[in-house]
Amino acid sequence: MTWSSQFCLLQRRTNINKIENRRVGLYERLVTFEGPEHFSVLDSVTSPTLAGDLQKICRGIVEHIRAISNDRVNVTRMVLHFKLDPLERIWLMYTTGLTVVDKSVFPVTIP
Fold it and tell me: Is residue 111 part of a domain?
């Protein structure tokens, strides 16, 4: 998922190999975003409920960073990787990009 205050791009990758296929190595059966593209296919996420839940999580992360930095750090862009478990709970796995503006380095003054 790529998030900014202006847009949100949701994508999912599905491995092309069946998890039960023991003729294919374990890595090749499980890898998605973290592996070579030829092991998975890219799809758009079309669920408005899931999109809303993910955007809410992202806003929470942004607000948390802002709060713990005493309003000095503002997140402008994030690339986050989530997984859904069998109970359809959303888990943040890792981030591969985080762009911030540090107001203590670049003070912003509004006339």
Answer: no
Tell me the C-alpha to C-alpha distance, in Å, between residue 109 and each of 36, 48, 74, 103, 104: 45, 37, 15, 10, 11
The verdict on residue 14 lying in a domain is yes
Distance of CA 92 to the CA centre of its chain: 7
What CA–CA distance (Å, rounded) separates 98 from 64?
14
Q: Which domain holds residue 58?
A: 2-102
Q: Tens digit of pLDDT for each residue in 22-66?
A: 999 999 999 998 899 999 999 888 899 999 999 999 999 999 999
Spatial distance between the Cα atoms of 60 and 65, rounded to a whole number of angstroms: 9
Total domain count for the chain?
Answer: 1
111 pLDDT tier (thresholds 50, 70, 90): low
Q: Residue 107 domain-assigned?
A: no
